[in-house]
Amino acid sequence: MGLLGASGSGKSMTLQCIAGLISPDEGVICANDRTLFDSAAGINLKPQARGVGYLFQNYALFPNMTVRKNVEIAYRGEPRERDAAVNALLARYELTEQAGKYPVHLSGGQQQRAALARIFAYEPAVLLLDEPFSALDTFLRENMQAELKRIIRGYAGDVVLVTHSRDEAYKIADRLVILEAGRAVAEGKTQDVFACPQTIQAARITGCKNISRIRPTGRTTFFALDWGVELDAGAEILPAYTHAGIRAHDFVPGDFMPRGERGGGDGGERGGAIGGEYGGNCFSIEIEDVIRGQFEKSVIFRVPREAGQPSGHSGQPCAAGAESPGRMWWITDRRTGGAGGAGSEAEAEAVFGVNADLDPIRSLYVAPGDIMLLRG
């Protein structure tokens, strides 16, 4: 299970409460049908009695002990089997050649493996991982993520991973809890939480850049007050839904929208969607800026608005804190014109105005299923 949240959301404190390093004011903590803490019943097991392995952010290896001694000190099995067990752990984590070295002479990845070997030396029932990749460079981090997934698959106990990286959470955790200010704002299977975050807070923490207040205009349609465009969510808009979100990777150039979405419609409110020039969930755009990365480009754009406000907008202001009315983000593969690889090289260059001889793409499409309806 992953705990995902911004700094200060209570992720590490939650782990410390499970491990017994901090005692909550009240409540109950259970693991594997064992009660570790119960304020009402007066239960508060000591850390060493909880059967919990804790991988700290800095790994917390004893600096005055070699790798072997760090592992040996945690061993709780039969004394006569200690050497064989420690040797097996060192081999498992590829530390045999580093067994006689001190932590200061180890790389970040070696320190992490040494810390894991020490944890598994006493066979914990629960493994707590507190941002285990925060001290690693990008290359090593990706290798260690793959290694940790392999280790977790072979571990029979429960694992709780704390991270502020949505990529790490998505790659490693089967289930996910999103924390904000010490409270869970979303939980469930990781892919489900990312696909349907349900709340504004969860959508933002999982990386949604485009969020707007909405006013329903039909059973499945709404007017996005902060974007100035009417869209079809493809699902009933219940009274609890106050906002909509669209992930920046989910836009596709209008030329690549599904054929069934083209044209038609009853007009709806202004903004270029639902009928109008393009029809469906396709709307015209004006590109403000482009941020070029090595593998992708971030396009900052807005939906064009005529003088005054679109019909039915009632002059409502943009959301507090918005940088600019109607501003949105589209992240596209650098090599192509559309999210997920749609479009050609020439079309991609046209989008960003690199080749002035080509007409730029002037519209984007979003599938109804990619629009997230959110509670405030």
Mean pLDDT: 80
CATH architecture annotation name of the largest domain: 3-Layer(aba) Sandwich
Global shape: elongated
Tally of individual helices: 9
Number of domains: 2
Name of the level-1 CATH class of the largest domain: Alpha Beta
Low confidence ranges: 261-279, 306-325, 336-348, 350-359
- Gyration radius over CA: 26 Å
Structural class: alpha+beta
Sheet having the most strands:
6 strands, mixed
Our measurement of the CA-to-CA distance between the termini, rounded to an integer number of angstroms, reads 25 Å
What pattern of helices and strands is seen along the backbone?
EHEEEEHHHEHEHEEHHEEEEEEEEEHEE
Within the CATH hierarchy, at the fold level, what is the topology of the largest domain? Rossmann fold
Question: Could you write a compact summary of the structure shown?
Answer:
The protein is α+β, with helices and mostly antiparallel strands and about 375 residues long. About 20% of the residues lie in helices and about 25% in strands. Strand 3 (about 35-40) and strand 4 (about 45) form a beta hairpin.
